[in-house]
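Hi all, long-time lurker, first post. I run a small reading group and we've been trying to get comfortable going from sequence to structure in the token notation. Rather than ask abstract questions, I figured I'd post a concrete chain and ask someone more experienced to write out its structure so we can walk through it together at our next meeting. Sequence below, copied exactly:
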Amino acid sequence: MKTHKELIYDINSLPLEGLLSFWWLGQLGYVLKLGGKIIYIDAYLVNSPGRAVPTLLHDFEVTNADIVIGTHDHSDHIDRANWPEVAKASPKAAFVVPNPLRKSISSELGILENRVYRLRDMETITFADIRITGIAAAHEFLDRDEQTGEYMYTGCVISYKDINIYHSGDCCIYEGLISRLQSFGHIDLMLIPINGRDGQRYRRGCIGNMTYQEAADLAGAIKPRLVCPSHYDLIYGNTEDVGKFLDYMNAKYPEIKSWTGEYGERVSVL
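-- Answer (accepted) --
Happy to help. Here is the structure in token form:
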């Protein structure tokens, strides 16, 4: 397992000719290297007592970010404690968040407003050759901001040339999700949670996501080149047996490849 300086070196040293590689940081956190850009999404860097796995990176080590995406305002997705240091360590990085959060991310974290970009459902923003399209997420519910009426939880499709990567953020299945994803023509890489939800967790404020069966069926409907189950491993009391997902995929959708592996392992998809 690569961590810290070794992990940063591995990301930086990958030749730009590769179209798509990723490194899993645990939970729904990933580093993508796509079209020569380095994208951090939902990177959770706090070494909190609730973590089952120590962080792979310190905030000051993230010196290579071109784009930092946070899908919603929970600390394991938008890591407010560490984003100011990430912004200093990667001074040219753009930060992308659901639109209702833009002002608070800038004013409360001290990140210049012109570095913070909005993520809206089915709206695309571009950074050179990288396109990022917001996809509404139902973190149990399709919650909207009271003032703007916009979605508070927003996954995204990250595109480069004809490559499409779907990162759902924390999300359950809802009417319209499949049609949104099918509008891209194809998905090459799907990064989705499988930890599920139940009454016990909901009562203690731990709102949930797709079950492993629902995640598998979403992959079965979209047929990505590769699906990566996520958000099952990192936080005590909010885990799932990834083997159940893999077994269900193998039984029901054997033609679709799944990836599970080590934290910090380089995976080249294309």
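A couple of things your group might point at:
The first helix runs from residue 4 to 13.
The chain has seven helices and 14 strands.
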